[in-house]
Amino acid sequence: MDQTEALVKTIVEGLQEKKGKNIVTVDLTRLSGAICQHMVICEGNTPTQVSALSDSVWDFARREAGEKPLSIDGSQRAEWIGMDYGTVLVHIFLPELREFYNLENLWSDAKLTQIADLD
What is the DSSP letter of 29? Predict the structure, then answer.
């Protein structure tokens, strides 16, 4: 497992820690012109949970992979938080915004992997 794949795994663990739902990983490594190698898309039920998910990803990535995001956007309203780790982009949405932007469909020619929700 390379460093980027290990980071994706760590990000998913951070999302699962705070009960992130409908986690999908998007492997963009085979697409030319992609803006990153992987995306992780997730949703939280409320702005408070979206914020907690972002904090958890930050903590897990820092502690487990020694990585800090290059930038974080959307923390103020916590409806859609984007975290840029360079090779990995993390999108944490409220359900209605995730449905509206439908990133999975936008990147449907990439390899999508649904991660089972933890109960």
Answer: T
Buried b / exposed e over 1-19, threshold 16 CB at 10 Å, is eeebbebbbbbbebbbebe
Q: What pLDDT is recorded for position 32?
A: 87
Question: What structural domains does the chain harbor?
Answer: 3-109 (3.30.460.10)
- For residue 82, with 0-12 CB atoms within 10 Å meaning exposed, 13-18 middle and 19 or more buried, which class applies? middle
Rounded Cα gap, residues 77 and 97, in angstroms:
12
**Residues constituting the chain:** 119
State whether residue 88 is helix, strand or coil. strand
Which are the contacts of 4, defined by CB distance < 8 A and separation ≥ 6? 37, 38, 87, 88
Q: Residues 96-110, buried b or exposed e (16+ Cβ, 10 A)?
A: ebbeeeeebeebeeb
Token code pair at residue 116: 């089972």
* pTM of the entire predicted model: 0.94
